[in-house]
Amino acid sequence: MHRIRFRSWSIVTAIGVATAILAILMTGPGEAAPPGPAAQTVSTPFAVLGYNNLGMHCMNQDFSEMLILPPYNTIRAQVIDRTHGSPEIVTSGISMEFSLPSNTRSVDKTNFWTYAPAVLGVNLPPNIGLTGNGMSGNMVRAAGLNYYTATGIPVTPIEDTGRENPYPLATITAKKNGVVMGTTQIVVPVSWEISCNICHKTPGISTATDILRAHDRLHATNLEASKPVLCAGCHADNALGAPGVPGVSNFSSAMHTSHAPRMAQAGLTNECYACHPGIRTLCQRDVHAARGMSCNDCHISMAAVGDPARNPWVDQPSCGGCHQAGHPTWEFEEPGKLYQDSRGHRNILCASCHGSPHAITPAITAADNVQAITAQGHPGKIDTCVVCHSSPPDDPFPHRRSDD
């Protein structure tokens, strides 16, 4: 029943001290604010659909001792022209803007900017992330692709009011010659709950020091005296674009294989939530969760995720692995691509209609359903044809890219 899909994965920007920070991260705590656009059906000439490339992005809360993951969120969006009967994806002559109304700043919510020079070798302006994006700005056309993106948005799970919210909404606006064509709202998920303190809780020292001291004891390293430490400085990490040190296990393998036999002491119903992202924050909050599925239904086990032969962030379960049998004529992920990067019907990105990984709609969190409700009047996958078509097509929906 379980399946791993393989694909090549491109890593973006290289930064600082032999490490490069790329686009995918994951986790978040707190309760979602039930946001509020009124339900309606799209009747404008253009539809805007977007998503976050990960269902949850993790980051450290404190960077003074070690860095696992920095603040780094990536969003994508497509603009669909409905004026020609058949939908056409717009890829030129427009501008795409994003903003986070509840999170306009981050520098006063985390010490990342204080320690980025020491741990990553970069000096960043306040509220500017590792790829030059801030908390609002312009999205750019992804090279050779039919969507717009903004990478490395340095959002934290703390709103400007001080409220913790791992599911803040971003507003994406498409404009042509300064005139608004359309907007949408999507969740930009982020959490720093990573609950290492469940086990790493030696009295009198911080959780990070406890981790580094244990690493020094077990592996004859000198990390405690070298703070702040970049874990990916030694352990290769695709999430950061970090090559690591030859002969040292990659970060995912090191973490999952070393912790898998020890998780019983955590006493959790779902052992994955010790880290991804924590006990309170919902990482998996999608239709699968609503139907009683858990992490291991797709990812098999912590030991399987840590298999040294697995390429982390690249070898992932596929939608087709489960759903192809029930729909043998449908197309799912494109060959060699993950769900988050794949295109479906008329080259619309799969996630534009179905939602982000781990937040596939209808989700059990209100914020994740906002885009669908706004676009078609109900949560769930975008399945109302007139969201993108000017009138309902006569032929049945084939769930294939080849349909035109």
Can you describe what's shown?
By secondary structure, this protein is α+β, with helices and mostly antiparallel strands. It has nine helices and twelve strands. The protein has one domain. Helices cover 15% and strands 15% of the residues. The strands form three sheets. Strands 3, 5, 6, 7, 8, 9, 10 and 11 form an eight-stranded antiparallel beta sheet that branches. Residues 1-42 have low confidence and may be disordered.
Explain briefly what this protein structure is.
This protein has 404 residues and is of the alpha+beta class. Helices cover 15% and strands 15% of the residues. It has 9 helices and 12 strands.
Shape: globular
Question: How many alpha or pi helices?
Answer: 9
Domain unit count: 1
Ends distance: 32 Å
Mean pLDDT: 88
Biggest β-sheet: count, sense, barrel? Answer: 8 strands, antiparallel
> How many β strands by DSSP?
12
C-alpha-based Rg, rounded:
21 Å
Low-pLDDT runs of 5+ residues are 1-42
Helix content estimate: 10-25%
Question: What is the helix/strand order?
Answer: EEEEEEEHEEEEHEHHHHHHH
The class by helix and strand makeup works out as alpha+beta
- % residues in beta strands: 15-25%
Task: Please render the helix and strand layout as text.
Blueprint: E1 14-15, E2 19-20, E3 46-52, E4 66-67, E5 73-81, E6 88-90, E7 95-99, H1 112-120, E8 136-141, E9 148-153, E10 169-176, E11 179-187, H2 207-219, E12 229-230, H3 251-259, H4 287-290, H5 295-299, H6 302-305, H7 319-323, H8 350-354, H9 370-376
Parallel strand pairs: 4-12
Antiparallel strand pairs: 1-2, 3-5, 5-6, 5-9, 7-8, 7-10, 8-9, 10-11
